[in-house]
Amino acid sequence: MLTGLEEKILQCITRYITQNGHAPTLVEIGQLLDIKSKGTVHRYVDSLIDKGHLQRSGRSWRGLRLTGEQSRRLLILPFAGRIAAGKPIEAIPEQLEINFSDMLLGEDRYVLEVKGDSMIDAGILDRDLVIVRETQTANNGDIVVALIDNGETTLKKLRKHGDRVELIPANQTMAPLIYPADRVHIQGVVVGQVRSY
Amino acid sequence: MLTGLEEKILQCITRYITQNGHAPTLVEIGQLLDIKSKGTVHRYVDSLIDKGHLQRSGRSWRGLRLTGEQSRRLLILPFAGRIAAGKPIEAIPEQLEINFSDMLLGEDRYVLEVKGDSMIDAGILDRDLVIVRETQTANNGDIVVALIDNGETTLKKLRKHGDRVELIPANQTMAPLIYPADRVHIQGVVVGQVRSY
DNA sequence: TACAAAGTTCTCCTTATGTTCTCTTTTTTA
DNA sequence: TAAAAAAGAGAACATAAGGAGAACTTTGTA
Q: Is there a single domain that holds both residue A170 and residue A185?
């Protein structure tokens, strides 16, 4: 179990290494985190080594290495920054980690696996998972799970026109479907999407 | 059987951990539930530990942990099945839940936010998050984080041709880039992708 | 080799947090 | 209605966490 500062120092080192390819010095860590004493930094680096999150390679300068050890108790990964074609990775100083629990999980949510290409232009591919929040109401533009005539189900973008609703696939080869509002029951809206390679 | 306050405190701690990635202090719990005395909070936390709903790691700050079912709930969502346009949702009896820890976490992984549309045809949109596994080697067809000339970075599909490598955008308006192999350094491969709406 | 830069080992300090009490009030239940 | 359980306040204390910096050793380099 890491303390607040241990956590911050580990994230700081992780990010520094992904950006620069080598570890920071103790003073550099201190500067990044606003700690004036390298003795203090050293103490925390030591405890991170004790706890198995870091390794020292010999006594050389910048000799810290990551062990890759990560807690599996929470859905948190280090955040390295933004990547745009043709530029260095841009670090976001305020955001050091991504908490997927916070982003994806919730009381009234469940997961569906998508079959088919009907939402491909919205970046939802065959076999992707989508996270759906259960609700009967949705807004224009939401991607919804809709039940039609109490039988078939579909995943489409929603547009309402008075007493009719339009269910719009995100695929240029498919046409939108228009139904009277009373034949379509919204079951939930898509709040997230996950793919693993 | 939990008393009313015990219930509230447990929920409060669970919510705090999902959102913040670490447990609250006694005073923070008090503030969230409008209890002024940390001694009182402490007493209820103690009884939650006695009843097996919480664990304490020594006397450390923020040292509370959830046990068993509670802690699993921070990693999973119920899995409802497959959705395909025009059919009922097909339930998969063997799979009742999705464990995001198994799907997303692993050694040497970090997260990048994607800027731009260069991978749009691969279902990776502007502002999506990708999970990258650090490695120097990659296979044909992998989506890689590549460092070019030790300066700029880019996210592209990889194809190797002997002593040259081709970096292929997934966007019909962009052309593939071909470089001598020694100018391109693979930093990692994309193993996952996440979007939240 | 001499010097600068970095790491190591200390000591001393402050503050935030957890722990242990006692006493009181409110709610539930027999 | 009396007793028990639950909820609450707060003081006093112990200790983990965070912080500064001096003095020293080791490593890298001009």
A: yes
